[in-house]
Amino acid sequence: MCRVRRPDRHGRNRRNQAEAASQAQEWPCWRESACLRSHAGEETPDRAQGSRSPMGGEAERRMTVCIAALYGDGEGVVLVSDRMVTAHFPIGYEFEHQEDTKIIALDGADAVHVMLAGDVLRGNEVLNVAKVQLAQHEGGVTAPEAAEIVRQAYQKVRLANIIHRELEPRGLDLNNYYGRQQQLSPQIVQMVDQAMCNENLGVEMLVAGPNGGSHTIHTVLNPGTIHDNTSIGHGAIGSGAPHAIYSLIEATYAASLSRERVIELVQGAKQRSEVAPGVGKETTIVAIPSEDVGNA
Question: pTM here?
Answer without folding.
Answer: 0.74
